[in-house]
Write a structure and sequence with these properties.
Number of strands of chain A: 21
Mean pLDDT of chain A: 97
Helix content of chain B: 55-70%
Number of domains of chain B: 1
Radius of gyration of chain A: 24 Å
Strand content of chain B: under 5%
Shape of chain B: globular
Distance between the termini of chain A: 32 Å
Radius of gyration of chain B: 21 Å
Order of helices and strands of chain B: HHHHHHHE
CATH superfamily of the domain at 1-99 and 116-126 and 150-169 and 246-343 and 439-447 and 511-541 and 552-572 in chain A: FAD/NAD(P)-binding domain
Shape of chain A: globular
Largest sheet of chain A: 8 strands, mixed
Structural class of chain B: mainly alpha
CATH class of the domain at 1-99 and 116-126 and 150-169 and 246-343 and 439-447 and 511-541 and 552-572 in chain A: Alpha Beta
Mean pLDDT of chain B: 88
Oligomer: heterodimer
Structural class of chain A: alpha+beta
C-alpha cells in the first residue's frame, strides 16, 4: 500500500504546473515544453482542440436558427455575459454562463469569463500594442500605486520573442509612446482614416497620431507559421468562432499544440484548481489541489514550480483560498494587499461623427483590425487636472447604399438584391481606452459563506470608477471632438454608456509586482516574495494598467518568467 | 344531456357565430411549435400572405416559398421579450379588422396594389390605439427581409455568401464598382 502511494505520488509529480491555458498560461506551457521541463497544464474548462472543436466556424448565416441572435430566455438567464459584445449565437459555447460561477457585486462589476482550453484567447479582440517606459514609469512619476520593478528594456526582448511566434501585423510607426515590434505587414487604413491621421499630424505638431492598430494576425502568406500548422488570415472577421486557418493567435492554434508536440507537456482539462499547497516544513509551495469538474472529487498534483495563469480574478481567488499556517490570509499575502489595488480599463466613452469628403470612395473586403490613437495626454509631463490618459480606437466606414427604404413588394425585392453603391456620408467613430488608477479601496475579497457549484468561495467585488475617471471621460470627449473638428468631421456626438467596470475584460491587479515585499506581492521576476517558486504572470500581476490592450504584455511576462524559473532551477 | 339543454347550447353557439360572422380562427388549432405565442394556423397563413406581399415571388422565389413566416414566428417566439410578443400577437389579431376597415375586405382577397398600400400605411401608423398593429407590421417587414435575405436559397443560388470576403481595399472608387442586375 505504501509503495502504491509512492508510485501514485510520482505519477502526479511534475517539474512545473501551469494553472490556466489561456494566453499567458499557454505561453508558460510552450516555453517549458521547449526547455524540456516536464509540465502539467491544468484547465478548469473542457478541452477545445484547434479546428475540431470549433463547431460554428464554417457555418453560413442561414445555418444559425436565429441568424446570430441569442434567444431571449438565455439573455434573461445570463444578464452578465449577455452584455459582452462578442456573445452571440456563433460563440455562446465559449462563454461562461452566469450560473457556472456566481459572484457578489458589492459594487457593480461585469465578469466575463471563458472556461475551456485556450480560455479567452479564443475570444479576444487580438489587439497587441507594446508598453513603453512612459507606461512603466507612470506610478513612480505620478505618485500612485508603487513603482514597477521592471522597465521596457527588461521586457522588450520578450515582446519580440512572443511577437515572432504569435504573428503580429503592424507598421513601423516610429512612435516613442508605442514602440515598434517584430511586425508582419500592417493592415491598410482607408482613405478617410488616412485623412484623419494626416490632419492630426498637421494640427498637433506631431504629438497626436492615428495608426493601423497592431493585431495578432498573420497578414499574408508567411512560411514560418506553417510549422505551427497556421495559415494567413483570410479577413473573415469570424474570429470568435475559432479560426480554422489559425489566422489569429490563440493558445489553441499556437502555443498549446506546440507545447504538446514537445512531449514534455501534459494537458488536463476539467480540473478546477482549489488552492496551491504550501508545505510549512519545506517552506515552499509543493503542489495544487484540484476539483474534478465532473466528479467534484479533490485530487492533488505536485511540482517544484507553480505558474498561476488563471486570469486575473481567479488567480486572486486561488491565492486567497490557499490557506496554510504560514499564510493564514492567503498565499504570499504577508503585506495584506492581496486582492487590493485592483484596476481595469475605462471603456465608457465614445465619439462619432460624419464626413462628407472622399464621397467618390468606398471600401471592399475585410480587415481584422482598425485604427488606433496612442495616448497623447500627460505623456511627457503632467498637463491636466487628472492623472494619466487614454488611447482611442478609430475607424471610418461608408454609409448608405440600401435600396429598400420605404418600398414594398417587387420594388423592395429588387432593391434588396441590387444594393446601390454607398450614397451616404462616411461615418467615423472612436472609443476610449482609459488608464484607471489602482487604489486600495478598489479590491476583491472572498465570501467563504456563499460557495459556488464546486464548493469554492465566491468572489466579492468592490471596484468602481473615481473622480479621475470621470474627468478623463470628459477630456476624451472634448479632445476627440476637437480632433474630429480639425479633420472636418461634422455631426459630432459624444456618448458615455456608463458601463460597469469589468466589461472592458481588462481586469488587472490584486497580486501586484513591486520592489518591496511590504507593499507588493510579486518581485521583478513575477515570483511571490514570500513563496518564490510560485509565479503569477497574468493580469493579476499588474502594478498599473496603462492604456494598451494588456494580453501581449502578459504573454511576454509569462515567457520571461518561465525562462527565469528554469534558470533558477539550474542554480539548484 | 337532455334535449332542451342541447338546444339552448346550440342557440348560444349559433348566436355567437351570428355576432362574429367573419371570424376566421374561432375553431383554429393553436400551433404548438411556437410555445410562447398563441398563434393559430390561419393566423400563420395570414402572416404568410403579408410576408409574401412584402417580398413576392417573381422570377425568383418569394417569402412564402422560403418559409419566411415560420422564420418570423421562430424569431418572435425565441428572441423577443414577453411584452414585445404580446404586442406582436395583438397586432396580428387586429390585422383582419384593419384590412376590412381600411380596404373593405379580407386581406387575402385584395388586389396586390391594395395589399401593398395597406402594409405601407400600416408601417406609418401612429398613436396609442395603433401601437400593436404598427409594431406587428414593422417587425414583420424587418423579419421578412432578414429571413429572406439570410436564407439558404438567396445565399447559395442568388447572391452567394462568401466566408472569405477578400483583402481589404480602403480606397475603392465607386465609379469602378459594377454589379450585375438581379431581376426579382
Amino acid at each position: 500500500m505504501a509503495n502504491l502511494n509512492i508510485q501514485n505520488k510520482q505519477e502526479r509529480t511534475y517539474q512545473a504546473i501551469v494553472i490556466g491555458s489561456g494566453a499567458s498560461g499557454g505561453w508558460a506551457a510552450k516555453e517549458f515544453g521547449d526547455l524540456g521541463v516536464k509540465t502539467l497544464v491544468l484547465e478548469r474548462g473542457r478541452n477545445v482542440e484547434h479546428v475540431k472543436d470549433y463547431p460554428t466556424t464554417n457555418m453560413l448565416p442561414y445555418e444559425f436558427k436565429h441568424r446570430g441572435k441569442i434567444p431571449q430566455e438565455i439573455l434573461d438567464e445570463n444578464p452578465i455575459v449577455a452584455k459582452c459584445y462578442a456573445f452571440g449565437e456563433d460563440s455562446a459555447h465559449f462563454f461562461v454562463k452566469d450560473a457556472e460561477q456566481p459572484y457578489i457585486q458589492e459594487k457593480p462589476f461585469d465578469w466575463i469569463r471563458g472556461y475551456q482550453v485556450g480560455g479567452k484567447s479564443l475570444l479576444w479582440a487580438r489587439q497587441v500594442q507594446r508598453w513603453s517606459d512612459y507606461d512603466f514609469e507612470g506610478p513612480a512619476r505620478d505618485g500612485f500605486a508603487v513603482d514597477w520593478p521592471i522597465r521596457y528594456q527588461d521586457i522588450a526582448p520578450w515582446y519580440s520573442h512572443v511577437e515572432k511566434f504569435a504573428g503580429v501585423s503592424g507598421n513601423k510607426d516610429g512612435l516613442d509612446v508605442l514602440p515598434d515590434g517584430e511586425f508582419l505587414p500592417g493592415y491598410d487604413l482607408n482613405v478617410v482614416e488616412k485623412h484623419f491621421a494626416q490632419k492630426l499630424k498637421e494640427s498637433y505638431g506631431g504629438d497626436r497620431h492615428m495608426i493601423s492598430a497592431r493585431c495578432a494576425h498573420i497578414n499574408g502568406p508567411h512560411q514560418q507559421f506553417a510549422e505551427q500548422g497556421r495559415a494567413f488570415c483570410q479577413n473573415r472577421n469570424l474570429c470568435q468562432r475559432g479560426c480554422p486557418f489559425g489566422g489569429y493567435f490563440s493558445s489553441n492554434s499556437s502555443t498549446l499544440p506546440w507545447a504538446l508536440k514537445s512531449g514534455n507537456v501534459t494537458l488536463r482539462p476539467d480540473s478546477v484548481v482549489h488552492s496551491i499547497i504550501y508545505d510549512d516544513e519545506k517552506g515552499k509551495a509543493t503542489g495544487v489541489r484540484v476539483i474534478d469538474a465532473h466528479t467534484k472529487e479533490m485530487e492533488e498534483f505536485y511540482a517544484d514550480v507553480i505558474f498561476l495563469n488563471a486570469a486575473a480574478i481567479n488567480s486572486n481567488l486561488i491565492l486567497m483560498n490557499s490557506i496554510s499556517s504560514r499564510f493564514p490570509n492567503g498565499l504570499g499575502n504577508d503585506s495584506g494587499l492581496l486582492g487590493k489595488y485592483f484596476a481595469f480599463h475605462n471603456y465608457r466613452a465614445g465619439v462619432s461623427a460624419s464626413f462628407d469628403g472622399y464621397m467618390e470612395y468606398t471600401t471592399s473586403g475585410g480587415r481584422p483590425t482598425s485604427g488606433y490613437i496612442p495616448r497623447f495626454r500627460n505623456v511627457k509631463k503632467q498637463e491636466t487636472d487628472f492623472l494619466r490618459g487614454y488611447a482611442g480606437g478609430f475607424s471610418a466606414y461608408r454609409s448608405g447604399g440600401y435600396n429598400g427604404g420605404d418600398r414594398i413588394g417587387m420594388e423592395l425585392k429588387e432593391g434588396l438584391l441590387n444594393p446601390a453603391a454607398p450614397d451616404g456620408p462616411w461615418r467615423v467613430g472612436s472609443h476610449m481606452m482609459g488608464e484607471t488608477i489602482p487604489k486600495e479601496s478598489n479590491f476583491l475579497a472572498l465570501d467563504t459563506k456563499n460557495l459556488d457549484p464546486y464548493g469554492l468561495p465566491t468572489m466579492k467585488f468592490n471596484v468602481s470608477y473615481d473622480e479621475n475617471d470621470e474627468k478623463m471621460i470628459l477630456d476624451y470627449q472634448e479632445q476627440i471632438s476637437e480632433m474630429f473638428e480639425k479633420a472636418g468631421f461634422t455631426d459630432i456626438s459624444v456618448r458615455d454608456d456608463h458601463r460597469s467596470p469589468g466589461l472592458d475584460i481588462h481586469e488587472m491587479g490584486g497580486v501586484r509586482m513591486g520592489k518591496d515585499p511590504k507593499t507588493s506581492l510579486l518581485n521583478r521576476n513575477h515570483q511571490l516574495h514570500a513563496a518564490p517558486n510560485v509565479y503569477v504572470t497574468d493580469g493579476a500581476c499588474m502594478t498599473s494598467t496603462s492604456t494598451q490592450n494588456p494580453t501581449l504584455t502578459y504573454m511576454a511576462f509569462a515567457a520571461r518568467a518561465a525562462h527565469h524559473a528554469v534558470e533558477e532551477s539550474k542554480k539548484g | 344531456m337532455n334535449r332542451r339543454i342541447a338546444l339552448r347550447h346550440l342557440a348560444l353557439i349559433s348566436g355567437g357565430l351570428a355576432l362574429v360572422p367573419s371570424c376566421d380562427f374561432s375553431s383554429d388549432d393553436i400551433l404548438a411549435a411556437y410555445d410562447k405565442l398563441k398563434i393559430t394556423s390561419s393566423q400563420k397563413q395570414l402572416l404568410g400572405e403579408i410576408s409574401n406581399t412584402i417580398i413576392p415571388a417573381g422570377e425568383l422565389k418569394g417569402a412564402l416559398d422560403l418559409e419566411v413566416p415560420d422564420f418570423i414566428l421562430v424569431m418572435v417566439n425565441d428572441c423577443l421579450k414577453k411584452e414585445e410578443q404580446d404586442l406582436f400577437t395583438q397586432g396580428l389579431t387586429a390585422f383582419p379588422t384593419y384590412a376590412k376597415n381600411t380596404a373593405g375586405g379580407r386581406f387575402e382577397k385584395l388586389e396586390t396594389k391594395e395589399k401593398e398600400s395597406l402594409i405601407q400605411n400600416g408601417l406609418k401608423l401612429e398613436g396609442e390605439e395603433n401601437k400593436a398593429l404598427s409594431y406587428f407590421i414593422n417587425v414583420t417587414k424587418r423579419l421578412t427581409i432578414q429571413g429572406y435575405m439570410a436564407s439558404e436559397y438567396i445565399q447559395t443560388e442568388v447572391v452567394p455568401y462568401s466566408l472569405i470576403p477578400g483583402t481589404y481595399n480602403g480606397a475603392v472608387l465607386i465609379s469602378d464598382t459594377h454589379k450585375p442586375h438581379i431581376n426579382g
